[in-house]
Amino acid sequence: MKSWKVPATATAGAVMLMALSACAPGGASSAATSETPSKDLGSEKVTLTVVTTPESGAPLDKIIAAFEKQHPNITVENKKTTFDDYNKQLPLQLASNSSPDLALINFVGNMAKDKLLLPLNPYKKLYGWDKIFSPGELGDYSMQDNLVGSGGSDLVALPTSFYLVGVYYNKDLAKQAGITVPPTSYDELVSDFAKAKSAGLLPLQLGNAQGHAFFTIQEVGQSIDGADQARDWVWGKPGNTFDTTGNRKGVQSLVEWNRAGYIPSPTEVNGTDLSDAVGKFTSGKGTFFIDGNWDGATIGKAMGDNVGFFTFPGKKATAAGGSAAYAISAKSKHPNEAAAFLDFFQSSEAAQAEFDAGFLPKNVSALKASDGSVMSDILTNFAKVSADNGGVDAYANATASMNDTFIKTTQDLLSGATDPDTLFATVQADWAKSHG
User: What is the pLDDT of residue 115?
Assistant: First the structure.
C-alpha cells in the first residue's frame, strides 16, 4: 500500500499507494549479519518482530499463527502503529538498535539509500520469487541505479497482497438500459454510458474529493498505451512523459463525460470522497463505478448478485493496482527466518487470511468465491491481469506529492478552472522534480 488512500476497512485509510524506492547495488546494507541465505532455519528459539499498521496488517495475526505452527521454534511479535505515525516513525525504528526484523513498506523514501533495508536478491533466487511474481509486481520494489526510481534490478521488499482497480456495474440498471454484457472496448463502454443516460440513469458514479478521478485517466490511458509504458512513467524511468496518447484520451474522457452528464455534477463529484461514492453506487446511483477490489466485499454485501466487475476494456488485461509489501531490516539478526516468513505469504493459509481481510494474495489457487459473486469476478480478472503482466502501480505514486497534484488538477479540470494542457504540464513538472 503506498500513496493512494483507500477506505480504512481495507488498508491504511487509503489507496494512496506511495512510490516505493528499492535498493540498487550498494544502496542497502547487509552489514548487520554475515549469515548465508538459507532455508535451513535450525531448531534454535528465535523471536522475530514485525511492524505494520492495523489496516494493512489486518491478516497478520492469522498468518503468524499458521507460520508459528509450521515453525514451532520461531515466535513472531506483531506491533501495530497507526498509519500516520507509522510512516513518520519507521525510518527511526529501522535505524535504531532495537530495529524490527520486518516492516510494512508504505513509503521507502531514503530508507534504502540510507542502508536501512536488507537486499533481497539472494532470497529472491533462493525461493524463486522471480518465478512466482511478474516483472511488474517485483519491479515496484526494485530500485534503479539512481536510488530514486523503481523498476531496477535489486529487490528491497516483497509484495504480499495486491490491489486491482476495475469497473463495477449494477446488473439491474444495465438491463434497464439494454446492456446485456460487459463492454469489451472503450467505444462500447461509452456507448453503454449513452444508453444508461437515455434510460434516465446515471452512467458513472464518481467521487473526487480525494483525487480518484485519476482512476479514470489511468484506466483509459494504460488500456491504450499498454502497461509497460504506463509503468515506466510511474517508476520514474528517464525520458518518460505523462503526455501520451492514452493519457490524453483519459483526460479528454473526463472532460467529455462531464460535459455529457455521464457523471454527477462537478460540485457533487469534487465534494464526494471514495467511501461516499461507494455508498451512492450501492444505493443505485450509478450504472458503472470505477473502484478497487478493497471495496469489493462492501459492495458485494450491499448488492448481492446484482453487481459484477470487469477490468477496463483494452487489447490486454491492464489495471491500476499496486500492493502491500514487507521489507527486512538491514539490522535484523535473523534474516533467514525473516525471509522464510515473507515466503510463507505464498501458502494457502496466508492466502486465505489475506482474502478474508479484503486483499488479493498472489496465490489464488486455493481461494474460493461463490459463482456469480463480485468477488469471483475480481479473482478471475486479477488472474488475467497477473498473467498479462498488466498491473501498474497508481499514477498517484509516481512521486510523494503526486496524489496532491492529481487532487488539485482533476478538481480544477472538472470545475472548469483549468484545461487539459495545464493539467499535463503540472503533472509532468511534479514528476520531473523527482525524476528529472
Answer: 85
The amino acid at 348:
S
pLDDT digits (tens, 9 = 90+) for 60-95: 999 999 999 999 999 999 999 887 788 889 999 999
Q: Cα(160)–Cα(360) distance, rounded to whole angstroms?
A: 9
Q: Does one domain contain both 133 and 27?
A: yes
The answer to whether 123 and 289 are in contact (CB under 8 A) is no
pLDDT for residue 149? 62
Domain holding 427: CATH number? 3.40.190.10
CA–chain centroid gap for 107, Å, is 13
Is 21 found in the same domain as 85?
Answer: yes
**Three-state SS sequence of 127-157:** HCHHHHCCHHHHHCCEECCCCCCECCCEECC
Closest CA relative to residue 125, chosen from 325, 327, 343, 322: 343
- The count of other CB atoms within 10 Å of the CB of residue 129 is 22
How large is the greatest C-alpha to C-alpha distance in the chain, in angstroms?
Answer: 70
Shared domain check, 60 and 18: yes
pLDDT given at position 34: 62
- In degrees and rounded to multiples of 5, residue 5 shows phi and psi of -80, 135
pLDDT recorded at residue 44: 95
What is the pTM for the complete model shown?
0.84
The list of the chain residues with pLDDT below 70 reads 1-34, 107-109, 144-149, 371
**Phi, psi (degrees; rounded to nearest 5) at 278:** -60, -45
pLDDT of residue 105: 87
Q: Which of 171, 190, 193 is nearest to 180 (CA)?
A: 171
Alpha carbon distance 365, 379 (integer Å)? 10
Distance CA(303)–CA(384), nearest Å, equals 24
